[in-house]
Amino acid sequence: MTNATTQTLILQSLTADLKALKELAQSAAPTQITELSQHAIRCTGIAASERSDALKSQISDLAFAAKIDAYWSTSPKQLSDFRFLAMDMDSTLITIECIDEIADMQGLKPQVSAITEAAMRGEIAFPESLARRVALLKGLPAEALQKVYDERLQLSLGAEPLLKAIQAAGIKTLLVSGGFTFFTDRMKARLNLDFTHANELEIVNGKLTGNVIKGIVDAQEKRRTVERVCAQLGITTQQAIVMGDGANDLAMMEIAGLSVAFRAKPVVRAKADVALNFVGLDGVLNLL
């Protein structure tokens, strides 16, 4: 266990072997290196000093260039510190942006994807971006949603091992999404999740109307949802792990005990406690 004057560094990768990881870690002069797997190590007893920030920045930059995820901590957390996991869906739990794939059925994917990207970077307010994108789907047969689910939706790397470990530890799960209930409902059943919250597309006579009903799940609603579920569970938000990739996830990530940016936009990586840029979702388990 580290104290206030020492730091822990965790290095993990999909491809770098233990030799490469240990060579990168040596410049930090850890007192102990523990092998977590064939592609992950924990380095403890790293002395804090006046040049610590520069050293951390240098190692982190070298790690990023080598496709290695680096995580620094002065107070390592245990899995038992947490009671709740909240996840974004699109481009976090799953590899796609559902609305972009639905739009592809209309031949409008480039237009919709451009709005999605701008929203995730924080350049367009999420409610405005969602309204603009959903409006483009007007008239699309509802069967297109099932087609996207069947043919294009895939879980992100490491999603199943992460959820297996989380659920085995008795940690409750929430999927909260600026996407759509059609997909979150199916993810809930498929992955045995405890809670979901998302936008509901209006369907009339078997076709999308271009509208969302019952309010929009934007950044603040995501945050309120995490707060509501934590209150329901009788825990604080500091007992929650929150994972996301876009600007509309920041509000809920900032109240978490551990915020995880997964394959995230730069604005999200900069503000999260942890950035998993290369390993799978289950990489968070090596941090605990």
From TrEMBL:
The keyword Plastid does not apply. Keywords: Amino-acid biosynthesis, Hydrolase, Magnesium, Metal-binding, Serine biosynthesis. Pathway: Amino-acid biosynthesis; L-serine biosynthesis; L-serine from 3-phospho-D-glycerate: step 3/3. It is an enzyme of class 3 (hydrolase). GO terms for cellular component: cytoplasm. Its cofactor is Mg(2+). Its EC number is 3.1.3.3. The active site is at D88 (nucleophile), D90 (proton donor). Belongs to the HAD-like hydrolase superfamily. SerB family. This is Phosphoserine phosphatase. It comes from Sapientia aquatica. The lineage of its organism: Bacteria, Pseudomonadati, Pseudomonadota, Betaproteobacteria, Burkholderiales. The gene is serB.
